[in-house]
Structure formats: C-alpha cells, structure tokens
Amino acid sequence: MTLLLQLLLVPLVFCLMEGVAWFLHKYAMHGFVWVPHEDHHRGHKGWFEKNDPFTAFFSALAIALFYLGVQGGINTLYYVAIRVTLYGVGYILFHDITFHRRIRVPRKGRYLKRIIRAHAAHHQKSTRYQGVSFGFLWAPRRYDADE
Fold first, then answer.
1. How far apart are CA 44 and CA 123, in angstroms?
2. Phi, psi at residue 100, to the nearest 5°?
3. CA distances from residue 17 to 13, 23, 48, 74, 142 in whole angstroms, order as listed
4. 1: confidence class by pLDDT, cuts 50, 70, 90
5. What residue segments make up the domains of the chain, in order of their start?
6. What is the DSSP letter of 33?
7. CA of 81: how far to CAs of 14, 54, 84, 95, 111, in Å?
8. CA atoms of 2 and 12, how far apart (whole Å)
9. Residue 82 and residue 129: Cα distance in Å, rounded?
10. Which residues are CB-neighbours of 142 under 8 A, at least 6 positions away?
11. Looking at residue 75, what is its pLDDT?
12. Which positions ≥6 away from 36 have C-beta within 8 Å?
C-alpha cells in the first residue's frame, strides 16, 4: 500500500475504532470482564480504579503493533498502530481527562457537550447487562443539549 493511501486510511480507521470500542465496552467490559470495570461505574476511593489496567493493555497492544510494523521496513501494522494510538489519545483526552475530570479542562462546544451527556447517561443508567451509550467519541443527536 502506498504511503498516501496509508495516511488517508488513518482518519477512516480512527472512526472505525469507535465501533470496536463500543463492541468491547458493551460485550467485554459489561460482560465477562465486569469485575474490574464495575468500580468505574460505582465509585471508588483514590485516583486509580481497577478499570485502569485496560489502558495499559491497549497501550501494550499499540506498542506491539508498532514493533511488528517496523520489522523489515515500515509495513501496514505500523499504520494500524498509529490509528490505534490516535484513538487511544482521543479516549484519554475525552473519557479520563474531560469526562471524569482527572485533569480540569474547559467543557465547551456542542460536540463535547453531546458526548459528555451520552457518557453521563451511560454511568447513570448502565449495569452489567443493561446499558445505554457504550461509545466514547460519538453519540447520537438525542444527547444534544436543548439550547
């Protein structure tokens, strides 16, 4: 694949990662790995939560993809690693920093308010087997503010 095509695929696959994240969140985190994810919904003491190692897992996955992606010259896995990493940065900026306020930043703008409302609904209405709004960086228009 040409470098230009690989670079053009970055935003497309970044967007497709939202679907992967939705699927993993709904069926893994609210399914068979609920135990470490539960304190993320129920509150916990301290800055860290049992849910945090998931970030380390996905970071290690991206590092492995970068490593495999430079074996014998840059290959497609390198660009997959870029896409996974960019989505991970977006996730941390929105989910951990902006929504959960691990670092205080302004929360302005229609798009940001929409995904904040959607994630707030997820935390208020979701249990292990039932839930709403499992995505992270996209939310339906029904979560727009009535302004």
1. 14
2. -85, 0
3. 6, 10, 25, 22, 22
4. low
5. 3-37+51-108
6. T
7. 11, 17, 5, 20, 26
8. 16
9. 32
10. none
11. 85
12. 50, 51, 53, 54
pLDDT surpasses 60 at 147 = no
Nearest to 37, CA basis, from 25, 45, 46, 47: 25
At 61-94, the pLDDT tens digits run 999 999 999 998 888 888 888 888 988 898 888 8
pTM assigned to the model: 0.79
Please, is 73 exposed, middle or buried when counting C-beta atoms within 10 Å of its C-beta (0-12, 13-18, 19+)?
A: exposed
The residue written with tokens 């970030």 in the block is: 55
